tRNA (guanine(27)-N(2))-dimethyltransferase (Mohoua ochrocephala), 709 residues
Amino acid sequence: DGVVVSEKVKSNNVDVKIPEPELEAEEKGAEEERPKESDSNILDVSSDYPRDKHISIQRHLADLEKLADLREDERKPCPLCPEEKFKACYSHKLHRHLQNLHWKVSVEFEGYRMCICHLSCRPVKPNLAGDQTLSKMGAHYHCIICSATIIRRTDMIGHINRHVNKGETESRFITVRAPKSSYEVVKESATDVQVLPNHSTPQKTDSYFNPKMKLNRQLIFCALAVLAGERKPIECLDAFGATGIMGLQWAKHLRNSVKVTINDCNENSVTMIKENCHLNKMKVKLNIKEEDNEETVGDGEENSDTIEVTKMDANVIMHLRSFDFIHLDPFGSSVNYLDSAFRNVRNLGIVSLTSTDISSLYAKAQHVALRHYGCNIVRTEYYKELAARAVIAAVTRAAARCNKGIEVLLAVALEHFVLVVVRVLRGPTPADDSAKKVRYLIHCQWCEERVFQKEGNMVEENPYQQLPCDCHGSMPGKTAVLLGPLWSGALFNTGFLRRMLLEAVQYGLDEAQPLLKTLVCEAECTTLKHFSTHGPGDENKQEECGVYIKTPNTAAESYLVHGKRKSEEVLRGTAKRQRAEHSAEHPPFYYNIHRHSIKGMNMPKLNKFLNYLSEAGYRVSRTHFDPMGVRTNAPLVQFKTVLMKYSTPTYAGAQAEGPVHLPGEIQVGEEVPAAAEVKVEEAELAEDDKSGASAAVLTQSYPTRCAAD
């Protein structure tokens, strides 16, 4: 009855004619079968739409009328309605019916109109209301791209938009891969990658590329470059490749120093990674576990321009193989992959992970943070550092389950992500030492003073005594909350950060250099004006911080190759380095200068305030977590005292006298009492003058009153 009766499918150069019942069954199940099809079933098609499309898809209204003109009778039926719904009528009445009921509610796409169809193309559940309701519920649209049948017009428009975002704009009633002309080529750090037009807002089956994560990729590259300078070649894994941009940058810049493996579990992402490798003139070595045969593009020899591409779950590949460097960047939290990452990572290797579930880490969804990280957090002024320490605590527990300890090299928390880079230390002793650094935090909700709970298992009678503030004694009720468990150790390694900065300068990573300078100053707890890229004690400092560098003496690293236990000398040296690191460790957390400002007073400039705290004898630095944050070992009471001392009143009358009363210099303080005495005398004289004037007025007015009486 006007439905397509044949469809030509090209298979092995043979034209096969499909009967009508089979074609209808194929159209009904097309939407369910499309996600199961692999790239092997994808056919190359032309850009022109095929002629064997559904009759409801036409370019002009006259084309629909021509379908009705095929009948020679004067009364013509509607080609898109069954006989029981719309009986045959004359041409003028049929024209009005097609225009109002089919053409006006159609969905347009590239010159074609997908009109609503009332034929029995779509299976409808049985209904006892009657044939009229049954035929009404059977109204639907036919997709021009995938032949799916969709009931609502708004759903049809969204369905077509999803095809366009994926680059599927060709029609063969099968899943069509996006043509290369629809790709966008993005260049970052001398690396070209092809991305889909919807790379910023992808679907679940698409590859994701976020330009805002460029800084994150540069920091990870610097960390890998430092590790490549310690020993080579190293095997590194990008567990969630997506477009493969990160692994391509590693292989393109570090060359012979690294053996890159890019993994992704999505078939479309793996195909795009292979194309991006060829775009950057890299050879691809395929190792897809689902396939029986392994395909190798290039020579059988190991080549510096060869990238291994795998298609499997990230947990599986980390269980099967060992790596020196592993980077985890899943969508959201990475806690589900930590156990697999630490199981086979090599000793003194590096594990970096990027967490983008900032809503839970930044205490906007506290129940999610408790569920994922097992950590109780609240919104504080130092919430970003709180998030970083919560992630490191989860990493520490995962490493300890594999009898491994960690050394935190870098922890960055910015607007879009939390990046943590740790070095893996094998053995139960480093694991125990790292596990001891996971503690609870006591946080005062009134003044936001905080302190880590003391070590030990004994229950204290009054835990409020550990807080430096006296809010519990002056305020009614409970004033503090217990947060954690959190990482209580250092967040940065100064020697490693300095070498990262040198690598960033060498490779011209301009966006990472300012942040790395801030991190070095934050790790040393010093201001930027005392910063120097090359210091005389850089090498010694790197050794004290526990960073292993290439030295002539390899006795301390011989146990790594042969798997032997450490000697007593190495253990003593490690203990000394840990003591030195602990003594030079930066103070935990920071204070926001706006949060503790005094009402009605103008604060000093932040750099001047840092100098004032430094002159008072405290360690002080800025922090990347908060542009107005101050990291210092000064208690909150001293912090507020210095801030109040160098603040000036905001009202206009006292601004002129501000430099006299609060000049910011100790010598001027001696002149303040004398000035106060002069002002007191002037005030007394003014009062005497006022009293004398009032008495004169009374004497003048009293005779007048007597005369009036």
